[in-house]
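Protocol step 4 of 5: obtain the predicted structure for the target chain.
Materials: sequence only (see below). No template structures provided, no constraints applied. The aim of this step is simply to have a reference model before the mutagenesis design in step 5. Sequence pasted as it appears in the construct record:
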Amino acid sequence: MRLRHLIFCVVCLCMSVAQPSGIAAAESNLDHKMAPLTSASSKSEFGLRSGSLIIAPIPFSDPMIDTGLALGAGYLFNIDEGSDPSMLGIGYLRSQNGSEGYGLTLNLAFMDNRWTIGMTYLDADIDYDLITSRGTLPINQTGELIKLKLMYGVTPEFRIGASARYLESTIRSSDPIFPNLPNFIRLPDGFSTVGFGLVADYSRVDDKIYPTSGFSLAFSSMYNEPSGRFGDEYVKSVLTYDRYVPTSETGVIAIRAVGCAAPGRVPFYDLCSLGGTDSFRGYNITEFLDNALMSTQIEYRKRLGKRIGVVAFGGVGAVGGGLDDLGDVGAAAGLGLRYRVSQKFPVDFAVDGSISEEGDSLLYVYVGQRF
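Step 4 output (structure tokens):
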């Protein structure tokens, strides 16, 4: 489990509150709750001065850190007509289990998408359960994460670039009766990880926020060097393929396939994770952790009007010591509801309920599509 997954909700908040749109007079409780997100102009103009500032509370539910409320402010704008929206955001969240964190993020796209720059700073104090073969361990993880990414558009569809990250963290037991972690996962009281990598993607989707046709292929590979006793160097690589097939004017089938490999002696917080690496729904993202992963998901999305949409989804994934040894398998399915909070950008408020093959159910509340 990586710290960047622990505070995923902060990043989602920073991006989601930055979606400008227009809204008529509120007609229901849901309209009242969404009104702060849907009060900006819907004019299609460009430049910093024509963007939209949104400040909003966002409820969320995550199987790892429980339910809670995130607060954020975001500014979304187009630098030029040929580029994707750029975004500056700040967010803070707190959950019922005491977890809290905040984040700052900046994403810029300019020169007709020839260049994109992303910078993120995250700070978190998170309580969660680490599920192992020897039982469930209550964990407290604190830390700071800095991420940088620079991408160059070789063609309108193909981009290549470099990424870097710095993680400084402390992991300890949150059980007052057993304050020490077992030896098989014990880490130094404080440790850091420095990583450098290559990233590339090829995308032919019709829309970056709510795609209805086309496909995208993304690859990342990062060399990591941890400090302290857990000092083995390792490389983690992830390949993601997304496909979107329209079934009607209001329906689309979305498919995601993911492969992950992190061979060697890798800290548990950076292993391949079903749910953490691939956005899989149905399991706590610390339940299926290992050096390799493969998963496939399929989702049917249907718009029932300008505001309401529904989804049905299912998937299967497996983790193991290597891509040729994926023996730990999980499968899940579920249904979801979407509420369109923007008229300028196709951003949805999402509520999903999933059930695993073991019969365990989980609720997810977030903003945007899962993939």
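Step 4 remarks: The chain has one domain: 3-367. The mean pLDDT is 81.
Proceed to step 5.
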